[in-house]
Design brief:
Distance between the termini of chain C: 31 Å
CATH class of chain B: Mainly Alpha
Largest interface: A-B, 89 and 106 residues
CATH class of the largest domain in chain C: Alpha Beta
CATH architecture of the largest domain in chain C: 3-Layer(aba) Sandwich
Oligomer: heterotrimer
Shape of chain B: globular
Strand content of chain C: 35-45%
Number of strands of chain B: 2
Number of helices of chain B: 12
Chains: A mainly alpha (293), B mainly alpha (298), C alpha+beta (361)
Number of domains of chain C: 2
Helix content of chain B: over 70%
Strand order of the largest sheet of chain C: 6-7-8-3-9-10
Order of helices and strands of chain B: HEEHHHHHHHHHHH
Number of strands of chain C: 21
CATH superfamily of the largest domain in chain C: P-loop containing nucleotide triphosphate hydrolases
Largest sheet of chain B: 2 strands, antiparallel
CATH topology of the largest domain in chain C: Rossmann fold
Order of helices and strands of chain C: EEEHEEEHHHEHEHEEHHEEEEEEEEEEE
Structural class of chain B: mainly alpha
Shape of chain C: elongated
Strand order of the largest sheet of chain B: 1-2
CATH superfamily of chain B: MetI-like
Number of domains of chain B: 1
């Protein structure tokens, strides 16, 4: 702890010395340019969020004329939105699908990640290699047969149809396998000597020890499911089953979209992920980086 | 050391742990993929399919919408991916300086777009790209353009709008990967280089870039796959038709339309989807080759 | 009667054999140390006894029962790991009672046993902390405590001190020795550190390449190594080896010439002398060099470096022919400035090894 702080102090001291002795004006200009670049990037990144919130308070006619200040139409927009959209139902659909899919994905993928890493055999390594290859096959290549399968099974317009195909995620399996490499194998040995069966080791040792991995994975999987679009679009065709993402898209596709109302809905749809992001920023980023480390 | 041979009980336990995932993947991924490969040789409408040999592949070469979609997808890919990677790299290197003020703030701001769903952000962008909207207004205010751009009526500007939107959404995502990789580089390497008198640009060119190469490759492959699967944004911007006059239609959108919008043509849409598989395969392979060659010559 | 027996025990990974047939009988209450260089198979052997590695061939018996296929938790063993392997999400108390919980022991009984182990190791004040809040030495004690709670017939230690700093290592070494006295159970201890082996063991088992090189009491191995490997491995600084040639064989004696030490001759007692002209190796421990003319032969050496440790001094010397010698002489501490020196060796304190490294007696 102390030593790293010292190292940092030394490093910044070194930079200051460099500033003083080197080509100081050149460095100052460069530093200024860096701040300018980052400020522009930050502004562009954040502006659409501002626009979204402000838009929710303006009538559509003002929005498409570029009004970027707070307006007085928030309540009107909200009223229109709730009149056109069965919001409780739709948000329930989104939440239900996202929560169940996330729980199942984590369970099944972490089991597999643990299995692949702890019980290495030639056959399973081959299978894992094959799965990594499948990772690059686009969803488009399977969506047509998938749709035919679910319509033959009479499962179109059900939660099951939205959830099932997403549950075994190769990416999350890979993520858990990578994370399992850092799980100390002596801990598993100790548990074996303590008399635990493999499933007990997984449940009572691995799971609590790896909880930050689970937290990071929860965030990315939840996000992916909450925001999922193409597959729900295909498989959810009746209004009462649709998710908020589908509804937003449908509203936007209208010939003259009511942007005030739509942006109000967009704020509602983005809020859960924004809240998760600000509460768990570090885990969030960890999850995104996941597999690379 | 030699890999430990597992005894029989461990073998069974190993299979038990991965079985649920394998069964689901087999059912909902491998089976559909194989089926769609088989489908791609079938012709006919709806479920009345019959074996057509290479008929679908022949049809591809004469299908103007397919050729347009392929071209558009390549345009998005060739223009958007490099811009985004360079920007992300630039921001990451700028933010990696520990003496920079407001570092956390900048980082959070640039990463923020990743939080939004593809539909949410494309909705927001659609409202900003309106003909009298905020973007045209801003561009005219700084005299970059004289008259408003018809972002969604002009085939060229429609593509530009989509590229801008995608770049906004994904640059921060890539930046985070570079930032993580940069922070894993031992700082004493740079200190050694400074003592050796290596100038800043050379430290970037000969130290940073080579050390980031695996991450750059990874993000390039991910972005390639992402761009070739482009669907949500275009669908949402153009109300599902890839307009104006197919100028923004992508392969994924075309497959969707072939299957669910027009009279379903499962065989042919499967053929189009396999075009994406083949293109992703070739591009990923080429990127690995390029990365390997550079390493050899370096 | 022996308490733990290994009979022709083998282990192979695919076609690679790492344990090549080991026979060993360990008595009850004995403190046995497996020692050897890294890769010698000592940890693998310990893990086979624990049941963490499958035994490819041969038999393992504990308390007269064949244990080859018995679950680790039912072998009557407990193990202390190099990394301590404490469950990071549990308190010290929970860590120590975890095994009993899964053995279906009643709560009050668990509490009692944990309290007893905590008393023995003076862990009471730490019981409600989690491993993260403990120092390295404390973690080590908790790991030992977790083993004690299970009341095992055999304790297994896998390089338990190698993650500690030097001072703590000495301290914990004494702690473990005290524990063995107090608990009176069989202990098997793996280390690559021959000092730990010498200080802790009743019996040392020296392993190399999956085979036992020698088994014996610490001083037995030191005074009477049965081959060049054991002679070199036990003792620090290590024994000096000098190339030699047999030049004369008398009745019960042999005379060798040190080929790289100016053909200095020394005569040693030997029952079965090798053929004249055969190459042999002469071993002399650093502390067995004497002052000039005080032994049976004199060697002239050049001093490269002198290390003064206070109580003793080590001289790193060569003879100009590539052979390095380490000489420990307390009385040479004042020879600091000298570059060349004459030392003597004694036949009684010299060891002779044949070409294959076997001791010639």
């Amino acid at each position: 702890m102390t030593s790293t702080t010292m190292a940092e102090n030394t490093a910044s001291a070194a930079t200051k010395v460099g500033l003083a002795t080197g080509a100081a004006p050149f460095r100052l200009i460069r530093r200024g340019l860096v701040y300018l670049l980052l400020s522009i990037a930050a502004f562009i990144s954040v502006f659409p969020f501002y626009w979204m919130v402000v838009g929710a308070t303006n009538p559509s006619a003002e929005i498409i004329k570029g009004k970027a200040t707070l307006g007085g139409s928030l309540l009107t927009n909200a009223a229109t939105f709730f009149a056109q959209v069965d919001a409780p139902r739709i948000f329930f659909n989104s939440a239900f699908i996202a929560v169940i899919a996330t729980a199942l994905t984590l369970a099944i993928s972490s089991l597999a990640g643990y299995g692949f890493e702890m019980f290495r055999s030639r056959v399973r390594e081959r299978i894992f290699g094959l799965l990594l290859l499948l990772l690059s096959i686009p969803f488009a290549a399977m969506m047509v047969p998938l749709f035919v399968m679910f319509s033959q099974a009479k499962l179109v317009n059900t939660y099951v149809a939205v959830i099932l195909p997403t549950v075994a995620s190769i990416f999350i399996i890979f993520y858990f396998r990578q994370a399992t490499k850092a799980f100390p194998s002596e801990l598993r040995d100790a548990a074996k000597i303590d008399g635990l069966k493999e499933w007990q080791i997984f449940l009572f040792v691995y799971l609590p020890v790896m909880r930050s991995t689970y937290a990071a994975a929860t965030i990315i999987v939840f996000m992916a499911n909450w925001n999922n679009y193409l597959w729900p679009l295909i498989v959810l065709q009746t209004a009462e089953n649709k998710t908020i993402t589908l509804i937003l898209s449908a509203l936007t596709s209208a010939y003259t979209p009511d942007y005030g109302m739509i942006l109000f809905g967009t704020v509602l749809a983005t809020l859960p992920t924004l809240i998760i992001f600000f509460l768990l920023q570090r885990r969030f980023v960890e999850g995104m980086l996941g597999a690379v480390k | 050391m030699a890999q430990a041979r597992l005894d029989r009980r461990d073998q069974i336990t190993g299979w038990a742990f991965i079985a649920p995932a394998l069964i689901l993947l087999g059912l909902f991924m491998i089976y559909p993929i194989v089926w769609s490969l088989w489908m791609s040789f079938q012709v006919g409408k709806g479920m009345n399919l019959s074996f057509g040999g290479f008929a679908n592949i022949m049809r591809l070469t004469k299908d103007p919408v397919f050729l347009r979609a392929l071209g558009n997808t390549f345009t998005f890919f060739i223009v958007q991916v490099p811009i985004m990677i360079v920007l992300a790299l630039l921001f990451a290197v700028a933010l990696n300086d520990s003496t920079l003020r407001f570092r956390g703030l900048f980082r959070t701001a640039i990463f923020l777009p990743c939080v939004t769903s593809l539909i949410a952000y494309s909705t927001v962008f659609k409202s900003m790209f309106a003909t009298d909207g905020i973007i045209n207004e801003a561009l005219m205010a700084v005299h970059l353009i004289g008259a408003p751009i018809g972002w969604f009526s002009d085939p060229f500007w429609a593509k530009v709008a989509i590229i801008l939107a995608i770049t906004w959404r994904w640059t921060g995502y890539n930046m985070i990967f570079y930032l993580a990789a940069l922070q894993n580089i031992d700082r004493s390497i740079y200190e050694a280089a400074r003592i050796d008198g290596v100038p800043a640009w050379a430290r970037f060119r000969y130290l940073t870039i080579p050390m980031l190469k695996p991450v750059i490759l990874f993000t390039t492959v991910i972005s390639t796959i992402g761009t070739l699967q482009l669907f949500d944004e275009v669908y949402n911007f153009t109300a599902g038709n890839g307009g104006p006059s197919d100028s923004t239609i992508t392969l994924s959108l075309y497959i969707y339309n072939l299957t669910f919008k027009f009279m379903p043509s499962f065989g042919y849409s499967a053929t189009v989807s396999w075009v994406i598989v083949v293109v992703v395969g070739i591009l990923s392979f080429l990127q690995f080759l390029v990365a390997r060659d550079r390493r050899r010559s370096a | 009667m022996s308490h733990l027996t290994l009979k022709a025990v083998r282990k192979s990974y695919g076609s690679v054999e790492v344990i090549k047939g080991i026979d060993l009988a360990i008595k009850a209450k004995e403190f046995v140390v497996f020692v050897g260089p890294s890769g010698c198979g000592k940890s693998t052997l310990l893990r086979m006894i624990a049941g963490l590695e499958h035994i490819s061939g041969g038999d393992l018996e504990i308390g007269g029962k064949r244990m080859n296929d018995v679950d680790p938790s039912k072998r009557g063993i407990a193990m202390v790991f190099q990394s301590y392997a404490l469950y990071p999400h549990m308190t010290v108390r929970e860590n120590m009672g975890f095994a009993l919980r899964f053995a279906g022991v009643a709560k009050e009984q668990i509490a009692k046993q944990v309290a007893e182990a905590a008393r023995i190791l003076a862990l009471e004040p730490l019981l409600d902390r989690v491993p993260k809040e403990l120092s390295g030495g404390q973690r080590q004690r908790v790991a030992i405590g977790r083993a004690i709670v299970r009341n095992p017939q055999v304790f297994l230690f896998d390089e338990p001190l190698s993650n500690l700093d030097a001072e703590l290592r000495v301290h914990m070494r004494i702690e473990i020795a005290r524990l063995h006295k107090e608990l009176q159970t069989t202990m098997i201890y793996v280390t690559h550190d021959q000092v730990e082996a010498m200080t802790l063991a009743d019996t040392i088992v020296v392993l190399r390449d999956g085979l036992v090189e020698q088994v014996g009491k610490p001083l037995e191995l030191y005074d009477n190594p049965s081959n060049q490997f054991v002679a070199g491995f036990i003792g620090s600084p290590r024994m000096n080896f000098m190339a030699a040639k047999v030049v004369e064989a008398g009745s019960g004696t042999v005379t060798v010439a040190l080929t790289k030490q100016g053909n200095v001759r020394i005569t040693l007692p030997l029952t079965a002398a090798p053929a004249i002209g055969s190459d042999v190796t002469l071993g002399v421990r650093p502390e067995h060099f004497g002052l000039a003319a005080a032994g049976d032969a004199d060697l002239a050496v050049n001093v490269d470096v002198a290390e003064h440790l206070g109580a003793t001094s080590y001289l790193y010397a060569n003879t100009g022919t590539g052979e390095q010698l380490i000489i420990e002489r307390e009385e040479l501490r004042n020879e600091l400035g000298k570059e060349s020196l004459t030392v003597s060796i004694r036949a009684a304190n010299s060891y002779l090894f044949d070409n294959s490294g076997q001791r010639l007696r």
